[in-house]
Amino acid sequence: MVEAVQGAKVIVTGAGGGIGAALARRFAGQGALVAVNDLDADRAKAVADEIGGIAVPGDASSVVTDARDALGGTVDVYCANAGVGRDGGEPGEPLDEQGWALSWDVNVMAHVRAAHALLPDWLERGSGRFVSTVSAAGLLTMIGTAPYSVTKHGAYAFAEWMSLTYRHRGVKVHAICPQGVRTDMLTASGSAGDLVLRPTAIEPDDVADALFRGIDEDRFLILPHPEVAEYYQARAADPERWLGGMNRIQRHWESTR
């Protein structure tokens, strides 16, 4: 058992399946009361019923008030897990501004809005935990989808800013950055995901395992795929070489489409 989350009041967004459902189950298994949020009300209810939690369906961008009320007025842990992967159109193609706007709203601004709603109480009492499901794309990048790559960089940057700004005031922040995870989003990533992510894809439960190790060790950066640390170091040490290697992957992908 991880003492830091026993008896906690927890919100998990995008928890109707995939990583979110795995996180909700793991928190509940540690004795937490979980508000299960998802756009799909039936899926949210199914997970909530399974774990003895509370279903709070709806948009992740505005869930805090309703979920906090459902939890009795207190939130100890917020898991900003809901995310979208959209293709916003490559240069030279028609610009999908709607896809860009949706990616920005769900992958970044939902996190910002949640923090805005939660921080006053957390700072007053000197405790709170913000868990951001980012992606290795937020540290590196992902071929074939500019909106996903760019907004996941934004999600990581916001989590990093939160950690450096509030850690001395009792707010814990964790950024989870997996590569491929066997979820609906991986299936939807198409041929790019098949090439880059599927060969080393892990299960959602593996992501939950990594998070709880990170909570127990009080770590900000959670890497369910440890090799991502090496890629991140290589990117920082020699950007030109790293970009050249990524471009080779891009060209290989283009040749197979």
TrEMBL record:
This is SDR family oxidoreductase. Its EC number is 1.-.-.-. It comes from the Bacteria. SUPFAM superfamilies: NAD(P)-binding Rossmann-fold domains (SSF51735). One of its GO terms (molecular function) is oxidoreductase activity. Belongs to the short-chain dehydrogenases/reductases (SDR) family. InterPro entries: NAD(P)-bd_dom_sf, Sc_DH/Rdtase_CS, SDR_fam. It is an enzyme of class 1 (oxidoreductase). Pfam families: adh_short (PF00106). Keywords: Oxidoreductase.
